[in-house]
Amino acid sequence: MAIMIPETPHIFEPASQEGLMFDALTLLPDDYYVFHSFRISTVQDNTFHESETDFVIFHKKHGVICLEAKAGHIKYKDGYWYYASGIPMHNDGPFNQASSNKWKLIKYIKNSKACALVDKCKFLHAVWFPSVSDNELRSMTLPPEADKALVLTKEALADPEKFLTRIYSIELPNRIETNLTEAEAQKLIREIFCPQFNVFPSASLDSDLKKLVFHRLLREQAGILNFLEDQRSASINGAAGTGKTMIAIEKAQRNAAENQSTLFLCYNSQLKKFLSENYSNPKIHYYTIAGLACKLCNTTFPDYKRMKNVLEDMYFSGTFPYDHVVVDEGQDFGSEILEQTDILQLIHDLIIDNEEKNGTFYVFYDRIQLIQADKIPQFIEDSDCKLTLYRNCRNTENIAVTSLRPISERKPKLLENAVKGTPAKIHFCDTEAKAMEELDMTIDNILAEGFKDVVILTCKTEDSSLLKSGIKDGRYRNKYRFTTCRKFKGLEADAIILIDVDGESFNPDNVLIYYVGTSRARLRLDVITMLSDEECLDILQNTLKRTGKIRKPRRELASALNAIGTVTND
After folding, report:
1. Looking at the DSSP assignment, which residues form a beta bridge with residue 234?
2. Range in 191-205, 326-340, 542-556 with the lowest mean pLDDT
3. N or C terminus: fewer CB in 10 A for the chain?
4. 326 near 248, Cβ under 8 Å?
């Protein structure tokens, strides 16, 4: 049986009888290849060219036949070929069409990697009239471009090889005879007639595609600024990953486009540095409270008492140098230094009470991280407008759920076509040595998947971390950034490896650190921990409020956190 490509025929018009011809050609020996509806498409001089041959028949010892099939009532009159309906045929009739397709195929091969095989293979063309018998053919007078030796009749339906062998025996003017080796035959098949490829997105490309979705979500999220355009003060709440920082930057950039200055305050010094380097604008001044205190007071170290006095003087004199204020990570101000909240309130009043400038004061914060605060700051409570961001546009859905699960049963809201991503992985290890081995293996696996932006975060301090003795200049293995979850607040990376997760990490006083660390991951999250079965059981029962019998605490904790758990034993 011949090798048919495709194995099953395309849908035919019953009148075409191509189905009958297809079935007949399957009767050829298994060293024949038959390509049905073979198309060549090219663009030359910005013009599209396309050809389709009903059947291309190939044999490594005989050559190639481009076979055009014409069934039913066909007539030729006054130099034109006609269908039974009286409509003229395209391409000047079947013989010219078959010949033209043959020469297009030869040209196509000459421009390919198989070009050398053109001179080692016969190329012929033929026409199949399955409705015409041999006797009828003999009585016909064909036009000059047609020769009866190039015709297959209905008898070929029963024995196609007999007719093909006759055509293959025709000598060509260049005297070429076909005698291809098996390797040459396969080259012609794989390069021309039936090329094979397998296209799949690399991890890096897949990451890029996911980021495009995140950018789209962020653009949609930033549309809230249009709604807030007439609001002088606004408080925008959102969980980690909802795009608060990027929307805050967009607000500052819109101010700059109006030639108005903005004081952009953020709690984290690393975030401040990142924003200054990546979103530099002469109209946007990035500061931490400590940095602003040194600037206003002209001191090396922040003096918050003196800073208050300076701001009060500016309030009465109207000399505050900024038109607008944007505060990012607003929930953190005052968490360690109480004076910071009072200072932000002063800055709020400087802006809002100066009606001549018509400035704005926007604060972006995460209400989840305010759960331990005694009270919500007044500059948040008194905002003209309060909004909440729900759509996660940083993390995949799986990562967002993993980060939120210990502190909230609320599932993050994403668009229907948002990126789901792969689940986070939790690697349970019994010893520090195994944890270090797992860290190195995890890094290697992440790199093998095409990720380049990899950051290691600890739930502890640098000095108490598993990596306390393996870090040089803030890098592990001299390459991968290592820092604490606290210091990395407001920042993100494609891949995050969270280490030093223990039972205390899920206590009410510390669980927000876990939340911050895990939510920094855009596309991949790995957690390396030495949690014991007893500790996992306690977390399941007391933090995640699980009831019922728990047989495998480590595995079940991973599942409860929407992650895949692996256990590495000594």
Report:
1. 362, 385
2. 191-205
3. C
4. yes
